[in-house]
Amino acid sequence: MNLSQHIDSAVFHDVGAAADNMGMPCYVVGGYVRDIFLCRHSKDVDFVTVGSGIDLATAVSARLGKDAHLSVFRNFGTAQVKTHRVELEFVGARRESYSHDSRKPVVENGTLDDDLSRRDFTINAMAVCVNEADFGQLIDPFNGIGDLDNQIIRTPLDPDITFSDDPLRMMRAVRFATQLGFTIFSDTFQAIVRNAARIEIISRERIADELNKIMASPVPSIGWSLLHNCGLLKFILPELDAMRGVQTVGGRGHKDNFLHTLTVLDNVARQSDNVWLRWAALLHDIAKPVTKRYDPRQGWTFHNHNFIGAKMVPRLFRSLRLPLNEKMKYVQKLVELHMRPIALVEDEVTDSAVRRLLFDAGNDIDDLMMLCRADITSRNQEKVRRHMANFELVRTKMKELEEKDRIRCFQPPVSGEDIMHIFNLSPCREVGQIKEAIKNAILDGIIPNQRDRALDFMYETAARMNLSPVNAPQ
What we know:
Elements: H1 10-21, E1 26-29, H2 31-37, E2 44-49, H3 53-64, E3 69-73, E4 78-82, E5 87-92, E6 94-97, E7 106-109, H4 112-117, E8 127-129, E9 138-139, H5 144-149, E10 152-153, H6 159-165, H7 168-180, E11 183-184, H8 186-195, H9 204-215, H10 221-229, H11 233-236, H12 238-241, E12 248-249, E13 252-253, H13 257-269, H14 275-283, H15 288-291, E14 293-295, E15 299-301, H16 305-320, H17 326-337, H18 340-346, H19 351-361, H20 365-374, H21 381-405, H22 416-423, H23 429-443, H24 451-464
Parallel strand pairs: 2-5, 10-11
Antiparallel strand pairs: 1-2, 1-8, 3-4, 4-5, 6-7, 8-9, 12-13, 14-15
């Protein structure tokens, strides 16, 4: 098969000409070739040459001129050429061997067949020649095209050796299956089951990168289900793995919280590409296994699972090497607050409760409401209809109160500095008490969110504390 029409652009001809001038066979390999058949565009192109990838990259950079930037990584035997159009990676064909306790291979020069054989999956083990004599000729020694047609993820060689040598490939199998909607070939899947424990030698950063790619996929539940079914999940995120299953006492069982979580995750994914909102969906019930109790009168309970789950989030992010910055705090906030809108739906929707929710959620209120709407997964359609109707009531009240009281992310109109100045106080407990009283009065609707009314309330509160004003407001 010839794919010359798919690589018929100046950059591929320039690489091929440089390789021909040096007498070096050169091929486009890996994901770029795969994506030609998947009709997906990529600006990153990997080249393998039989010889020095660094020498070829240097020649290509010189040929492309001032618009090209060359980076050489001698420790890895690779080089990169960046232009304003594409990013080109060059490496010499190699073969690899591994020791059992490390994923760092012993690398030797090899042939193109050696190089394609060491690749993770057949769909990534295809090459296209860029030398002039065979320009566009496809090399597909492991029937990668057939596996693309059949939507199969399969290793080129013995999967036990493939995954034992580099256990990260097990994560990549799950990730590709999730991204592409493919099936992992039975022999390949069973090899993951057998080798799952080997994932523990892989750095958490590399695993987190694959998890985020799974999370960014159209249907992320596919990946998390596969991780559970093949045994990887218990090594990666055992707290999530522990959610699977149903316990029954006296004929009363609870829903499978793992399956419920994946439904919520997909519900969110259909509405938002925000990966961190998807993480919040995945972790929103993470504390249910540790809070699960059976009460003969109430049945199964999960009291305070939202608060305990929020406390678990920093530890889970740290373990997974996910960022411990505002992204983590965002996920933590949504996990903690995810029961609040549900409580409003089930109880009387008071102005005070809505104001407090707006205040606590701040600018994340819309994401929180999206998560909570996604959390309604009951099979009882009447219950779902009732909840959805009440949700619209809550949304309407939120809009009305936000327009009237400007509660979202509000700062009390009288600050701590104001209070200290007016009553000639240093920082002390009384200042905090007065400020908190003003905030609560606004949230409870006792006073509007206005400075003059807040000052009046401040004087009344301070008088009850035997405090008298010394200075006029600034």
